[in-house]
């Protein structure tokens, strides 16, 4: 599995219902999560595979986002095209490079006894 499973796209569109009174966000949208991305997130969660800096949010894996301002061909409406990929620190490469063992210098925040779950083995956990 690649360091960044196929980045997937989505978009953010102006929310016509947003007002100061109802406090809705000025833009709403989505990001497509692929099966490979979901498997990667599950493996990272099972192995505490994210940066632990002591600062919020220290809750779990991160999906990096990028956005470009575009114009819809049909309507001419402006929107942000969004792309996302899953980030994880280099010390967790062993979870995805085919090896089952963590490198010798495992950070203290990651339990050395935590079993690495290869993405292929996680296939059985998904109903799709």
Give a topology summary.
Elements: E1 8-14, E2 27-31, H1 35-46, E3 62-71, E4 78-87
Antiparallel strand pairs: 1-2, 1-4, 3-4
Major β-sheet strand ordering: 2-1-4-3
Radius of gyration: 18 Å
Percent of residues in beta strands:
25-35%
Q: Uncertain segments of ≥5 residues (pLDDT<50)?
A: 1-6, 106-121
Distance from N terminus to C terminus (CA atoms, Å) equals 18 Å
Helix proportion: under 10%
Overall pLDDT, averaged? 77
Count of discrete structural domains: 1
What letter string, H or E per element, gives the SSE order?
A: EEHEE
Bulk shape? elongated
Largest sheet data: 4 strands, antiparallel
> How many individual β-strands?
4
Structural class designation: mainly beta
- Counted by DSSP, the helix tally is 1
Write up this protein.
The chain is mainly beta. It contains one helix and four strands, in the order E-E-H-E-E. It has one helix at 35-46, and strands at 8-14, 27-31, 62-71, 78-87. Strands 2-1-4-3 form a four-stranded antiparallel sheet. Residues 1-6 and 106-121 have low confidence and may be disordered.
Q: Summed up, what is this model?
A:
This protein is mainly beta and 128 residues long.
Quickly list its features.
1 helix, mainly beta, elongated, four-stranded antiparallel sheet, 128 residues, disordered N terminus, 4 strands, 9% helix
């Amino acid at each position: 599995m690649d360091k960044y499973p196929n980045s997937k796209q989505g978009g953010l569109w102006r929310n016509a219902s947003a007002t100061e009174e109802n406090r809705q966000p000025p833009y709403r949208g989505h990001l497509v999560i692929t099966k490979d991305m979901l498997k990667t997130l599950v493996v990272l969660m099972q192995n505490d595979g994210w940066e632990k800096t002591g600062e919020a949010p220290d809750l779990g894996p991160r999906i990096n986002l990028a956005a470009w301002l575009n114009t819809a061909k049909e309507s001419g409406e402006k929107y942000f095209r969004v792309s996302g990929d899953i980030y994880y620190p280099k010390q967790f490469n062993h979870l995805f490079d085919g090896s089952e063992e963590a490198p010798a210098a495992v950070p203290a925040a990651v339990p050395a006894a935590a079993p690495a779950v290869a993405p292929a083995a996680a296939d059985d956990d998904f109903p799709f």
